[in-house]
Write a structure and sequence with these properties.
mainly alpha; Non-ribosomal Peptide Synthetase Peptidyl Carrier Protein, Chain A; 5 helices
Amino acid sequence: MTTAGQDIAAIESMVLAVLAEQLNRPVESRELGNSFIDLGLDSLEAVFLCGALEERWSRPIDPVLVFEATSVAHFVRLVFQELEA
């Protein structure tokens, strides 16, 4: 568990839910290997993604993580590390 009371699966679920809201379509766990670009997320939406996650966890999530991540799954791991810090 992280200090924010989240584990990897919970973070993954939250990220997929927020992505689905932003993209206005279901985002399945099988899409975790896709990049945000492959999913159709642009840079502005990436900032909104991090903002939505920040609101849910009351912790800052650096939007740079979206651009550093090679996939959604990689982003989830990076967020997990941020929440653990």
